[in-house]
Amino acid sequence: MFRNGFNNKMPKDLAKVQKKIHKKKGVATSLHENSRDAKRLRRAGARSDKLEKLATARGKALQPYLRRISFFQSAAQEASGPFTVESMQALIEIYLDRDSTELSTIQSERRPGRPTSTGEDLLKQRIQVEANEYKSGYWIPDMEDMENLERLKEWNEQWTSLGTLEYVRIAKHGTKHVSSFPPKGKS
Known about the structure:
The protein is mainly alpha-helical. The chain has six helices and three strands. The two termini are about 35 Å apart.
């Protein structure tokens, strides 16, 4: 917004800015380094770069949840009926144990007396974070509800389509709490 309260009507998308300048200047577009149009192009380019970086970072942050739900989807594909809390706990423990062989391989390859590698530290940290989440309540799709189980089986592995599923938090001691999407803390 401008200081006088009016909205800025200038386009912000890089392609739109380029199109508008091309219409205004014609085919032979040579801009002065500090002209208004050059500044507009730089701002639009920087904005599109920033948005691209944010989208990439968000995609990386969502990958663990997508892998988690994909694992439970493959387990649901093999099941004929709804799961019990005990069977969901067994699936969670299988999922949490997925990195133990990789961790033991990394530890056995390390020479005695050498410090742990960054990859090993990150793997241990991820295992610890997931174990702590399981103590308080592990976020998964509700697999006790048959309708939700069918929706999980039909899931197309896209983040945007996860909003149709219902979620629960299953704790290590066997309690089940209704949760929300997307996961936020201990929701």
